[in-house]
TrEMBL record:
Domain Bromo: residue ranges: 14-63
Keywords: Bromodomain
Protein name (database record): Bromodomain-containing protein
Superkingdom of origin organism: Eukaryota
GO biological process entries: positive regulation of transcription by RNA polymerase II
Species name: Dactylonectria estremocensis
Database matches in Pfam families: Bromodomain
Single Gene Ontology MF annotation: histone H3 acetyltransferase activity
Length: 73
């Protein structure tokens, strides 16, 4: 169990994403009324999808899920 706790939380090169975004940040921005328009919210969601595709190979389940989910935005 201790060995698992020492594992990095993110994969290699994760910090190389120029504009990171995650659902926790989006939730905090929603609660703080930082989204002025629905489009601002959508832009952050699309940034998550774009980062997912940059970070993961297009054939991975993560990238495929991002592509499917983005169609609903």
């Amino acid at each position: 169990m201790n060995e698992l706790a020492r594992q990095p939380r993110h994969g290699p090169n994760y910090n190389q994403l120029l504009h990171p975004m995650d659902l926790d940040t989006m939730e905090a921005k929603l609660e703080a009324d930082q989204y002025m328009t629905p489009e601002d919210f959508i832009k952050d969601a699309q940034l998550i999808f774009a980062n997912c595709r940059k970070y993961n190979d297009e054939n991975t389940s993560n990238a495929k899920c991002a592509n499917k989910l983005e169609k609903y935005m």
